[in-house]
Amino acid sequence: MTAKGIQPVCNFQQVFEYTYLFGAFSPVTRDQFLLIMPYCIGETFQIFLNQFSEQNKKKYKIIVLDNGAFHKAKKLEIPDNIVLLFLPPYSPELNPAEKMWHHIKRKFTNKHFTNLKVISLFFTETINLLTPDKIKSICSFEYISLGDF
């Protein structure tokens, strides 16, 4: 006689909730601009662009982007003080912001968050720790000499 395990059958519904962090980081000026958004779509990217444009209105801003569909939404209206610079496909390593996302994701890994509010608080605390020198050290590339601005 052998023992056989019994596997109970039960209903289970897995629920996923999402939040998205939109951001721009400058290894030159060491500035940052971030928004936590509920969706990653053209409409929320437009909100990001509009609010980023309003920050230091007189500054001309170049945003380096991958080729995500929401970055190229047909309804986007690019503010006059912003230009979008698209990277070649499959080359995220050329984007300074990708280094920052990697930095934030490392702090996020293997942590348990009970809800989106807690995750948003974590993002806010992590972002508040980003000093201008930290932004430059994370986002800079060795092959680009940016000097001290």
CATH topology-level fold name: Nucleotidyltransferase, domain 5
- Physical arrangement of strands within the biggest beta sheet: 1-2
- CATH C-level: Alpha Beta
User: What is the correct CATH architecture?
Assistant: 2-Layer Sandwich
Helix content: 25-40%
Could you please describe the fold and organization of this structure?
By secondary structure, this protein is of the alpha+beta class. The chain has a single domain (20-139), classed as Nucleotidyltransferase, domain 5, CATH 3.30.420. Helix content is 32%, strand content 15%. It has helices spanning 42-54, 96-108, 116-128, 132-139, and strands spanning 20-25, 32-37, 61-65, 82-86. The strands form two sheets. A two-stranded antiparallel sheet has the order 1-2. The protein has a two-stranded parallel sheet with strand order 3-4.
Give the topology:
Elements: E1 20-25, E2 32-37, H1 42-54, E3 61-65, E4 82-86, H2 96-108, H3 116-128, H4 132-139
Parallel strand pairs: 3-4
Antiparallel strand pairs: 1-2
Question: Care to give the gist of this entry?
Answer:
By secondary structure, this protein is an alpha+beta fold.
List keywords for this structure.
two-stranded parallel sheet; 149 residues; alpha+beta
